[in-house]
Amino acid sequence: MNEIENDRKLRDCYSSKSIMLSIIIVNWNTREALLNCLNAIYGTIKDIDFETFVVDNASTDNSQKAVKDFFPSVKLIENKENLGFAKANNQALKLMKGEYALLLNSDTITTDGAITKILRFMELNRNVGICGGQLLNKDGTKQRSFDNISTPLTDLINNTALRIIFPKKYLGRKCKFDKPVEVESIIGACMMVRKKAIDNVGLMDENFFFYYEDMDWCYRMKKRGWNISFYPDAFIYHIRGESSKQLNEKATIEFLKSKYYFFKKHYDKKTIILHEIGLLLKTIVGIISNSLFAIFKRGNIKKVRKYIVVLLWHLKRKA
Question: Which residue has the higher pLDDT, 8 or 268?
Fold first, then answer.
C-alpha cells in the first residue's frame, strides 16, 4: 500500500461518524495546566473525530468548574477522593467509544500533527498495542519518553553504564531515530493504546496508585504479543510533575510501593529478595556519598534527605 492509499484510508476513517480517539486526562489540583492541555488538544488535533474525558481526583482548586465553564463538551468524571492514576484512567477507559485511547497527563501540551502521526502509524501497524511520542521540556530539550522494563540490573546499575555496555538494548533520550522504533515501555505522560489490545490484555492494574502502572501495562501487552512503539517525530511538551510536586516525600514512598509491587507481581521470590537487599545497600551508600558531597562540595542536601526517607521506609517495612 503506497502513501497516497494510506492517506485516503485514514481520511475515510476520520470522516466516518464513529469516534476514532478517546482522550483521557486524569487531574488532581492542576487547574491551569489542565486548561492549557485542553486548549492545546482542541487547537492541534484536527481531522480526527475524538471525545475527551477529564477524570478529576477530588481537586480543591476549582478544576472541575473551570472544565465546565471553558470546555462544556468535555466528559467530566468527578471523584470524591483521589483514586490514583490507574483507577481514574480505568473509569474513562470503561466508557470510551474510540478505537484508540490517548492517555495524557494534565501537564502536557500537544503540538500540531503529533497525535495524527501516532494515530496514522497505529492504523498502518495493527500489531502495535501502545505507541508514544517524543516528550519535551519547556525549552524543547528531550525528555525520557520510553524505558526498559525494570529488572534488578536496571535498578541497581547506573543507566548510563548500561547504555554504554549494552547500547542496542538500553536506548537513551540522546539516541537519534529517523523512524518509529520498538521499545519495551512507553512513559505514561502520553500513550496511545489500541482498544483491541485493551480488550485482549485488560485495563490498568489498580493496585498501582501512582507510578509503574504504565510499565506494567506495556509489559503485559508485550507478553500477549503486542508491540510497543516510540514515534520520534511526534512532539509533546511535558511540564513534569505538576501533581507529584505536591506530594514531595509522599511521592517517593508511592514510587517505592509501586516498584515493590511490580517486582512482586512479575518476578520470583529469590529475585525479589536479592533486589531488596541490593536496593537497601544502594540506599545506604547513597546516604554516605551524598552526605560527604554536601559537606565538602556544598552538594544538594535534599538528595541526602530523600535517601534517608527511603531507608526509613525500608526499615519500617521490615519491622
Answer: 268
